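Re-run with default settings, no changes from the original entry. Doing this only to confirm the output is reproducible before filing.
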Amino acid sequence: MEVISISQISDPNKQQPFTGLSLEFLQNALRKDDAGIIETLVTKIVGSYSLTVPYVISGCVVTDSNKDVTAGKIFYGGKFYETTSVNGTTNVARFILTKTQDTTADPITFSNGSTGSVHDIYKYVPTDTASGGDFIATDLVYLASTSSVIAQQITLASQLTSSSTYVDMTGLTYTTPNDGLTRKYKLTLKSDSDLDGTGGFGSSIAQAFYRIYNDTDSTELDESQTSTVIFVNSSTQDVGAVVTANCTTIVSLAPNKVIKCQFKLSAGTSVTATKAKFFIEEIK
């Protein structure tokens, strides 16, 4: 703890001066107090602390491949800063420390009659530039939302398709939160498959595929195949069988990604997805 002692003041016989160095001492003491509190919180939430990491206290939502950033508040290099916003840029946002003045308090007049501005405001400005700055948007580590855990289940009672190309399973869609956080997820799709084979004496193969799909980035995350031999007793019969599909993946996903469950028929006459469930779990 750092304080300015006032025990030696015995006004009017002994007055204590308040110098520029005294003001600097007080400002540094306040910064150290803030730093100690925030460092403790950062370590508790993230597990470690570094002077070179920009920790987001609020705001700073990143979109458009880390090029657009909303205004917010960060803790960096042991100090607290506000940040401004940037939108419609072409480069990944680079944060540049920028000084402005408090136009209400400045300028002031000194004892010798000269004027100057002393009320400095330092903010980090995310800037559309290819180089420079102290850190970039991808360096941000978020504190405010990391304590919440995502756990969600979406269900689908029944859906039929005879399409040989993937179709969306109705309602089994999840969009990652648009809050600037990249999270690690466990995604699971389970579904019974009522498979119908072709008619005719003997047997035939009925087959379907299911997948978890990142629609935003056109990326297949996991695929599951279901198949069965359909036995028919005569040329007029067309019987079916029920088998289970199971897709599971662990993946890191950035904000605002649309994740879909899809299925298709690859052999037979049709497939009906029944009792389908899509599980979304955040992994800490």
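The chain has two domains: 20-142, 151-282. Residues 70 and 259 are 24 Å apart (CA to CA).
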